[in-house]
Amino acid sequence: MKGSTIHYLNSGLIILSCIISFYVPFELFLFAYGVLGPLHYLTEIGWLHKKNYFTKGKYDYVVLVITCVIMVYYNFNPPKKGLGIIPDLIAFALFTSIAFVFIKDWLYRAIVIILSVISIAYLNDANNYFIWIGIFLPTIIHVFIFTWLFMLYGVLKERSVPGLISIIILIICSVLIFMIQPQNLFYEVSDYTRKSYALFGELNYRMISFFNMEKITDMKQIYTSNAGFVVMRFIAFAYTYHYLNWFSKTSVIKWHQVPKMVLAATLIIWALAVTIYIIDYNLGLKVLFFLSFLHVFLEFPLNIVSFTGIGKEVSALVKRK
């Protein structure tokens, strides 16, 4: 598939995701997360492994895997002081990824990692640290901001006008989701949907409160308030397109070019994951929790490469002018 065709396809997928999110945001998210999500985790981790996770060391990813294991353990066995350690582990994974991308010598890496730990200790006292790192970073920042950066990096490298159009459409759709406010909710969220989405409710609640969209005092209001509806539209849109963007670029990224046995195992695990979600959605969330966070951690080096790559491409454009 040609690059321009892929960009036009992506533009269509952005618009489609946006339209559906306007009508059934909770249901769209649950479908995307439970069906598209597991296949995305599995295929992206496999692709990242082939790319050596975009780090300078062969076994750097082991540190990120161990960090994720520790984080998952504390998530299900929270310490007496609460879940404050969770954002610290996420921040540690991000800072060590920066060291792994730019530094090869372990002496200098150790220095950076020690400085990172000290920085994290100070960040604990910062306002909204838990919200930004513990809640927003592995969720909405990962699926929306990092996806946008990945797209922008590709567009700048290709000097692609259709690619630039798709990025503009993504921004426009995001703005429209917040600008077009419902006068009243025209559908009621079912009990099954509420029960299945319950573990994600904190994200909606925090977004509504942080951006002062509406004063809500009860978690249940994320299903009944206009602000809850608008935020859910954005979350559903961001997650759905995050997954669709990955699969639409199969011919470019070539994540499917793996041994047949690996591909077969991937599809079998994916089918099992979807089956668990169908039987009990909350059970699926718990079973797939490690895999979902692992792909976030292992993608940090790629996010850093995309961010620095944008800087290099912009700098090159300025120099040419």
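(ticket continues) Second input and output from the same batch:
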Amino acid sequence: MPGTHTKFKAALVQMRTSLSVEKNIDDASKLIREAKGLGAQYIQTPEMTNIMEQGRDGLFAQLKEEERDDALAAFRQLARDLKVHLHLGSLAIKASEDKAVNRSFLIGPDGEVVVRYDKIHLFDVQLPGGESYRESNTYRPGEIAVTADLPWGRLGLTICYDLRFPALYRALASAGAHFLAVPAAFTKQTGEAHWHVLQRARAIETGSFVLAAAQGGHHENGRDTFGHSLIIDPWGKVLAEGGTDPQVVIAEIDAEEVAKVRARIPSLEHGRRFEVAGTVQERGHLHLVGKAS
């Protein structure tokens, strides 16, 4: 990896997810079809593609288990119809009577689920101005980092708040990931301050492409998200960027650029053990799912 074919078009579907699962399926499907029409072979949607609801009662009234989820079924069929790799940034999926999972799905051109990834780092924060989020009250965290092989190279899957934990991205890159997916629903407040610099940092420090489909604008549930979906190359250059409205963001990717950048700055080979106040620290170990290089 990467194989013979290293160039492809990657598209990000930027959304403004509502409280209606049916509407969100329809909105996303139209943009996915638009992306296919532009030549995209890999299409990514943002975090919470199926519903944007913070209230537990409203959320669980619409949640279903994976095998019964209407959105997943619809998008599997769409991937099959369009013959694309469709990456659902995440869906809210019912895991038990009192917990959901924030789960990403990579669907192949045959409509089958290639891999699943449950968001590891949950967004439990109190922002200035009274804006507060407690994802752990509703969602169960994932425990396993995940990679998957695409025809053009290896993909490492993450979701939103994971972006603030660089050890995860280093582990994914060390496991052979050429592309790092960061579908998100960043708040407007944190996005304005940190979105671009964190995304570019993850690309630069791992020598990887970053693909980050985002939610953007004022949502039906009252939340404001930042938008600005980004495609970033391994040198940290922004190749394509969205605004705040629903849209398709697309760029051509050449996986060979990863090897070139990593050869120039081989930081992934230079990780060392070190001591802090007498305690030995080393790169955190993460279980990785996917074919070995």
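Agent notes: The radius of gyration is 18 Å. The domain at 8-268+280-289 is CATH 3.60.110.10 (Nitrilase/N-carbamoyl-D-aminoacid amidohydrolase). Closing as not reproducible unless the customer responds.
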